[in-house]
Design goal:
Distance between the termini: 54 Å
Largest sheet: 5 strands, mixed
Number of strands: 23
Radius of gyration: 32 Å
């Protein structure tokens, strides 16, 4: 059940948006519907708004939904004292103003019936059909009596999964939260703050991703007023004090109308006022606000071609600020937004006026987002899948990713934290794969994120990348439009380094890496596994198989099975290195070089070493060995190619490579190599030292994590 109270001074009132008079509506709701078959007075206004967007809409289902909702909620009141039915009516009006279709409005009228009354989902299905039942179920909260503290995160999980099947679920939830935020004043201050924080962290980002700017901007202002009342009051005074600036924008708008009229371009030119949070952001960015920062000019035309015609006229007849030009028509934003952005000098070369140019349909989508799609499932279309992500705008890439990683996070707290982290990444980029596909990623994502987005758990085998044709580190942050080629290892035993967690921005990548590291414990400090003296380690659990290495190791006089031995990746020991071992989870032993820094850390932390030594391989045959070498050299062209050629000439295979950025004309290359015979190592190091420019080659005590190729 939602809460209610008139919030005096709330900033959410938007021009052109009628607010319901709750007292009048309450009286109408209690007064009955008048003549049989006639729309009840309380829903008549909703019906008129709905018919303005959908002239042929069937209003009978709305009448029946209202009658069921009113009778079910009869006797219930909100904290403001108004009849409870005023809340679903207000939510339905919000959606009707955005142009939502009849099924969505029907579900919004009923959205609290199953949660707060004796009405069941089966009754909803029987009277209104499966679509309405699904939408009502999607926004119905889970009971705290059943889920305890996990009720809120699990409710959002349920709602997001339902949104993956029908985006209208989230449309109803956003409208529901908007009305609750508008009427939050009677709640205790601490509860207001809690609700406002969830709105800020989860629902506002979801509104942004779904393109519902009309709801998003009002929610932002309402949250701003609750969480930062002093800043809100200061911004409000600032807007009031610069009211004359809007008059200057109106003067510029009149000049624009004249220019377009002379050019024969039919257009509506409006002054679109910024909301308080937008003005506040401008002030934080620039330190001051001018009158022109309080609003923007909005030019609405009929066709896409008219948008570019308007742009040409403005740049011809006014002084444009080219740095402000952005074309979101040719390259729409990930949330369906399309528009041309530019800025021109005001009268007499005054303050710049920002201009948005779009068609009427683009404007509808910009304000209402997915709500403007109507019923996107009414006419099934053959989905044009790209890389497993639907092109269908009601199932964008971010939602597909979210639904994918939530399956791997059964823990409610982890899900809740990961959801907030995901939604904090507030912009989407598109990366082009070298094979012609695309990958949708949040802004700030790295090559590590791309590996898991493209390959799922197969991303564990990524050893490097090429970005725009050049070798790049796995930590490289990708930009919109980059071309990416991921380099994958053929070694099934390879896996991510703990350092990858520092480069992963997406929950999907972080969850996959953490899961792999938990099932493949490295030689870092971890709870020790007791070993009986003189007895071999027990075999590892089937759920966490050990990586198999083609060497034999003896611990405390007993030969260990190959499956029980792991050679540490941090120092890559090979015979005849002096080695020591440590027991790890899963009943295995990780073997390090005695000089490895990890050994000193583990001994200092109280870990007991296990005595290990090399033994001859069965049958005396040669085995493959892995080693990490670090080459110090002077920077010069073709150095990487020459070093790689020298390594290949010695019969070694490159498993992974890393190149640090040059510093003072010096550069460090780090290679993890596979040798057919450990005895070849000294000659390999000598061959690398003979490469011109290389002045030292040494065994690496720890891999370089900054530049994996």
């Amino acid at each position: 059940m939602s809460t209610d109270a008139t919030h005096e001074g709330a900033p959410g009132r938007r021009r052109g948006r009628a607010r319901l008079d709750l007292r009048r509506l309450g009286r109408a709701a209690l007064g009955g519907s008048g003549a049989r078959g006639r729309l009840p007075d309380a829903i008549d206004h909703v019906a008129k708004v709905h018919r303005a967007h959908h002239p042929g809409a069937d209003l009978d289902i709305l009448r029946r939904a209202y009658l069921l909702a009113e009778s079910s909620h009869r006797g219930q009141t909100r904290k403001s004292g108004e009849p409870y039915i005023t809340h679903p009516l207000a939510v339905t009006l919000i959606l009707a103003e955005l142009g939502a279709e009849t099924t969505t409005l029907t579900a919004s009228l009923l959205h609290d019936t199953v949660e707060d009354t004796e009405v069941t989902l089966e009754q909803v299905r029987g009277q209104f059909g499966e679509e309405v039942r699904f939408l009502v179920d999607g926004v119905t909260k889970l009971e705290k009596v059943d889920y305890g503290a996990a009720a809120e995160p699990e409710t959002f999980r349920k709602m997001l999964v339902a949104t993956g099947n029908d985006v209208r679920v989230m449309s109803i939830k956003l409208a529901d939260r908007l009305h609750n935020m508008r009427t939050l004043g009677v709640m205790r201050p601490e509860k207001q703050v809690r609700i406002a924080k969830v709105t800020r962290d989860v629902l506002i980002p979801l509104a942004e991703r779904l393109g519902v700017q009309a709801l998003k901007t009002e929610l932002e202002d309402l949250v701003f007023a609750i969480l930062h009342p002093d800043e809100y009051a200061r911004t409000r005074e600032l807007v009031t004090g610069h009211a004359a600036g809007l008059a200057a924008l109106e003067t510029t708008a009149e000049r624009v109308r004249g220019v377009l009229r002379e050019a024969g371009i039919a257009a509506d030119v409006l002054v679109k006022q910024r909301h308080f949070v937008s003005v506040h952001r401008v002030r934080l960015k620039r330190g001051e606000v001018t009158g022109s920062d309080l609003g923007r000019l909005l030019v609405l035309v009929a066709e896409d071609a008219d948008c570019y015609a308007v742009l040409g006229e403005l740049h011809t007849c006014f002084t444009p600020f080219i740095s402000e030009f952005k074309d979101f028509i040719a390259t729409p934003k990930f949330n369906l937004y399309q528009s041309l952005h530019t800025a021109v000098a005001g009268p007499g070369g005054g303050e710049p006026a920002q201009v948005l140019i779009r068609t009427h349909q683009m404007h509808k989508v910009a304000e209402a987002g997915v709500v403007a799609l109507g019923n996107p499932y009414a006419t099934p279309e053959t989905p044009d899948a790209t890389d497993g992500e639907r092109v269908d705008p009601t199932r964008p890439g971010w939602l597909s990713r979210l639904l994918e990683w939530q399956r791997a996070t059964p823990d409610p707290d982890t899900f809740w934290t990961s959801l907030r982290d995901e939604l904090a990444l507030d912009r989407e980029i598109t990366v082009f794969r070298a094979d012609g596909g695309t990958i949708g990623l949040p802004a700030g994502a790295s090559c590590v994120d791309a590996a898991y987005a493209q390959h799922g758990d197969g991303g564990h085998s990524c050893i490097g990348a090429r970005v725009n044709g050049r070798l790049a580190t796995l930590s490289t942050v990708l930009r919109d439009g980059d071309t990416l080629q991921l380099l994958m290892s053929r070694d099934s035993a390879s896996g991510p380094s703990p350092d990858w967690l520092e480069h992963a921005r997406t929950p999907a990548a972080r969850i996959a890496i953490e899961r792999w590291l938990a099932s493949h414990p490295a030689g870092e400090p971890a709870p020790p596994v007791p070993l009986a003296p003189g007895r071999p380690c027990p075999p590892p659990r089937a759920t966490a198989p050990a990586a198999r290495w083609p060497v034999a190791v003896t611990a405390d006089g007993a030969d260990l099975a190959a499956a029980s031995v792991r050679l540490a990746g941090c120092c890559t020991p090979v015979p005849p290195d002096e080695v020591t071992g440590f027991a790890v989870r899963g009943g295995a032993v990780t073997v390090h070089r005695a000089q490895c820094p990890a050994v000193h850390r583990m001994v200092a932390s109280g870990r007991e070493p296990v005595g290990v030594r090399w033994s001859s391989p069965e049958g005396g045959g040669a085995r493959d060995y892995r080693v990490t070498l670090r080459a110090e050299s002077f920077s010069r062209p073709h150095l990487l190619a020459d070093l790689t050629e020298a390594i290949a000439a010695e019969g070694a295979a490159v498993i992974s490579a890393a190149v640090e950025p040059p510093h003072e004309q010096r550069v460090r290359h780090t290679y993890t190599l596979q040798l057919p015979d450990a005895a070849q190592l000294p000659e390999l190091m000598r061959a690398m030292r003979r490469v011109p420019g290389v002045y030292d080659v040494a065994r690496a005590g720890r891999p370089v994590a900054t530049a994996q190729l």
